[in-house]
Amino acid sequence: MNDHSTSTSLQSLDAIDRHRVLTDHPAHLIRRSYQIFLFCFDEAMAGLRLTPVTWIILATAHNFPDLSVTELARRAAVDKASCGRAAAVLQKRGLLRKRDADHLLPFLS
Hints:
Blueprint: H1 3-11, H2 15-23, H3 26-44, H4 52-63, E1 67-68, H5 69-76, H6 80-92, E2 96-98, E3 103-106
Antiparallel strand pairs: 1-3, 2-3
Helix pairs in contact: 4-5, 4-6, 5-6
Pfam families: MarR_2 (PF12802)
Protein name: Transcriptional regulator, MarR family
GO molecular function: DNA-binding transcription factor activity
């Protein structure tokens, strides 16, 4: 189906149906789910100053101590650059420490 026929078929819908086409689209539902997740996460973590990425890095390091940054990123399903940035933030806050050049340990281990 080309763009012209898609736009023509959308024009034939009334405003409520056009709105439903947008709000029922998987991309919209995923975006809204993420907004709701962030709201709930922020409430649950109030005062802890953790983002979803810093939380998963800290939780993964706690459950699997002494991982390299590369392995920690893989297990946490976070790209290596984001993992490195999050680990640096957690180190500055005293929540994570390096055993050597590349291996991380949770502070309480």
